[in-house]
Amino acid sequence: MILVVSDLHLGYKKFNRSDFLNFLDFHKNTNIDHLVLLGDIFDFWRRNNAQLVEENEEIMKKINDINAQNIHYIVGNHDFYILDLIKRYEINYKGIVSKYLRLENGGKSFFFIHGYELEAILWEFPASINMYEKFSNEMCFNKDSAGGFLSKIWDIREFLSKKRRFIKDMNKAPNKRKTISKVDEFALTTGKYPLLGMKNDETLIFGHTHQPFINKTKKVANTGSWIDELPQKSQQNSYIEIDNGKMELKFFK
Question: For 27, which DSSP code?
Answer without folding.
Answer: T
